[in-house]
Amino acid sequence: MDLQRLLAWTEPLFGTITDVLPIIAILIGFQVMVLRRPIPNLGRVVLGLVLVVVGLACFIQGLQSALFPLGKLMAAQLTDPAFLGNTGDQEHTTAHWLDYHWVYLFAFAIGFATTIAEPSLIAVAIKAQQVSAGTIAAGGLRLAVAVGVAIGLTIGVFRIVTGTPLHYYIIAGYCVVLLQTAFAPRSIVALAYDSGGVTTSTVTVPLVAALGIGLSSNIPGRDPLLDGFGLIAFASLFPIMSVLGYAQIGAEITRLRARARTKRRQES
Amino acid sequence: MLKALALPLLSSLRDSLRDLTPILAVILGFQYLVLRQPIPDLVGLLGGALLVVIGLTLFVQGLKLALFPIGETMASDFARKGSLFWLLAFAFSLGFGTTVAEPALIAVADEAALVAAEGGMIPTTDVARERYADGLRLTVAMAVGLAIVIGVLRILRGWPVHYLIIGGYLGVVLMTGIAPAEIVGIAYDSGGVTTSTITVPLVTALGIGLASSIEGRNPTVDGFGLIAFASLTPMIFVMGYGMLV
B35 vs A59: CB contact, 8 Å cut-off? Predict the structure, then answer.
């Protein structure tokens, strides 16, 4: 029993190490054979790699041992027909879409909360703030992405509940993204597209999948396999919109302020 | 050295604590207020949360000490070396190598092989399934390698990112129309699976490092976008794989 528990604890560590090993092999291979330059601050880099591996292993172990089981249990409970209050009654075997209001709220809240804790998003946000010399604030970017994921998941849950086709939503979403791309400040476009791929990672995917599976297996006529995929597509599409929108609003505010300033100057 | 490390570590610990608060609030709030049930194992939950906070703190420190500097110095070294071939070879290896051993991808590939065997696309033997799963993994890894190569070329040449993305989306829509229906869900999923927590910072730093070492490129406008390609090409490639096998 003790050995088993110990093994279960070291599993994320080994998983992270096998994840990192090929990367390190490639980095060292090119550094030694092609670039032929010594790595600056080698000690610091090695320490940093150890911190990355140990940190990620702790992070994943903590999520798997405590947060995921509870989150998955809640997703299952919230989508349970008994909780939605339609047991036995023949006329109400299929709930009205408004009956799922707690599920929408849960999707919104959990989408926002898991995105704020997503390590890859933290990394991209730190870089964005550095590179833009502070014009793109790391905190603001992460909030924008989190709001995007939250809205995306809520709409995704609504889609599963109503059973409307996935591609209508996705194609409409692509159209909105294209329109926004045409009007948004150029400096944000690539970053916004990147934030779509970054959100579906360590923290968000397992909980979102649990929500999708819970919902689609409790509503008659939904396929758990198909609808679980749908939610992740929503979670990577909507952050693109919200980040583009965040930049558009920021640009608009700067423009209005500048205009107010010149007006004041003209008056005085 | 120790003092210089301790101060950012403390502020980073505070940040991690703040980042985890929303999840705890959502879970506790829904459990007590909506479901009206006690937490089954409160001590376990708090212990796990503590582990997550410590892990996140160490990861962010390691990011700044190792992953960001490695990506950026290698990018500027390659730019100084001036050999397009080696830069593209590095870009491909990075994309391919980080993806092919990705545990999430291995899980998805095995699942896909089961679906394919049930659908009658391949014989229902272990050997056939394994071959199918390995083929799928190689396909996704090739797609990500190619994505990084295209993304690096884009940074070098200064092509606008949205033309390539729009082209990619059209490719996805087109392939969805002609690929076998069983593969579509797996294909969409493979796009999200490829970008792991270690790949993202490294690839981001590579892009920004390249954009800052090449004259006429703006790191904000041109440095990002590699991740976007890496989650787009696998969808197209996996649907193509579904059509061929």
Answer: no
Q: In whole angstroms, what is the distance from residue B53 CA to residue B49 CA?
A: 6
Which amino acid type is present at position B94?
L
DSSP letter for A92, please: G
Predicted complex ipTM: 0.85
Choose among A144, A254, A252: nearest CA to A194.
Answer: A144
Exposed e or buried b for every residue in B84-122, given b needs 16+ CB within 10 A?
eeebbbbbbbbbbbbbbbbebbbebbeebbeebbeeebb
Q: Establish if B236 touches chain A: CB-CB under 8 angstroms.
A: no
Q: Out of B41, B54, B73, whose CB is closest to A40? A: B73
Residues in A touching B51 (Cβ below 8 Å):
58-59, 61-62, 65-66
Residues in chain B closer than 8 A to A119 (CB atoms): 56, 59-60, 197
CA atoms of A80 and A87, how far apart (whole Å): 10
Instruction: Name the residue ranges covered by the structural domains of chain A.
Output: 1-65, 79-267
Phi-psi label, residue B218: left if phi above 0, alpha if psi -120 to 50, beta otherwise: beta
Instruction: Name the burial class of residue A220, with classes exposed (0-12), middle (13-18) and buried (19+) by CB atoms within 10 angstroms of its CB.
Output: exposed
| Cβ-based contacts under 8 A for chains A and B | 297
pLDDT digits (tens, 9 = 90+) for A186-224: 889 999 999 888 877 777 777 787 788 778 777 777 776
pLDDT digits (tens, 9 = 90+) for A37-77: 877 788 888 999 999 999 989 998 888 888 888 888 888 88
